[in-house]
Amino acid sequence: MSAEQRTVFYDNLTLNYAYTLPNKFRFRVNAYYERESVSAAFRMLGMGGKSFRELNLPESLRRFVELQSGLVLVCGPAGAGKSTTLSSIIDEINRTRKLHIVTIEDPIEFVHEDKMSIISQREVGIDTKSFADALKQALRQDPNVILIGEMRDEETIETAALAAETGHLVFSTIHSSNAVQAIERVLDVFSGKMQEQFRQLLSNTLKGIIAMKLMTKMDASGLIPAVEVMFVTPTIKSLIAENKLTDIYEFITEGQQDGMQTFTECLLRMVQAGLISRDDAIYNAEQPTELRLKLDGHTSTVSEMSSSGSTLYDWL
């Protein structure tokens, strides 16, 4: 820890930070006290971002890379791969577009080198005081793309949406279990007339949501993401504006030709492909009864996928 980090740690009795070894191994660290002693949990991080294919992410996510403006949210529980997914998206933008990308993180998890884009990475507590303050300053730094590590408060959420409204492409994460719940959670930060005003702003700026869960592979060789993808169509935009959020799930289900998929459809394909077990899929499903019925009524197999010319990556 630096002297400043040590001070924060002693004041708060806990601290999240990134640590890089001389050989470039990088870790996300959570330091804390337990039984009057200092303990820490380390999670190894990568340098830069991995490709969608390396992470087993749907090819449809590439549409977010090509956006000019708007708000894109990545949601899921802690440790679901939200930061890793955003790092992959940022790396793809960096590799293919000439833009200025500003990231605001706590801590910086993945270090990016300039490729086609110029990347400015700012760490809360070291380079800036807070997400909200850094976001306000970022708007004066001529960014095209802004990544906010996490939207934690009303000011940050509102400023992020306003940045998206004024022509910036904004990415952020939020803790929620699925796309619809992510919208509800963002709106619940506001109350009264402010909530209604923000609902209209959100309906105009939100471009899509990626929801994630990590599943154990059938052969126990590692983890693989189950991904729900929602793109904001004119219909979904209207449903958000009219506060008919419970109707959105149906349109995600019907939007497979547009690259959308629910957790149910993703888990179904993963079971059929032999990637995960039926029991794990049902246990982790948002709609377990629906998934069970689909599993009982579908008989597609890996061999059938192969005979049709489709790859597993195409399905996911």
Can you describe what's shown?
- The protein is of the alpha/beta class and 316 residues long.
- It is built from 14 helices and ten strands.
- Strand 7, helix 5 and strand 8 form a beta-alpha-beta unit.
- Helix 4 packs parallel to helix 5, helix 5 runs parallel beside helix 7 and helix 10 packs parallel to helix 12.
- The protein is globular and about 60 Å long.
- The N and C termini lie far apart (41 Å).
- About 5% of the residues have low confidence.
Question: By CATH's scheme, which homologous superfamily of the largest domain applies?
Answer: P-loop containing nucleotide triphosphate hydrolases
What is the count of helical runs? 14
Q: Tell me the number of structural domains.
A: 3
In spatial order, strands of the major sheet run 6-5-7-8-4-9-10
**What is the radius of gyration?**
20 Å
Q: Termini separation (Å)?
A: 41 Å
The major pleated sheet works out as:
7 strands, mixed
Strand content: 15-25%
Number of strands: 10
- CATH class type of the largest domain: Alpha Beta
Shape: globular
Helix share, percent: 25-40%
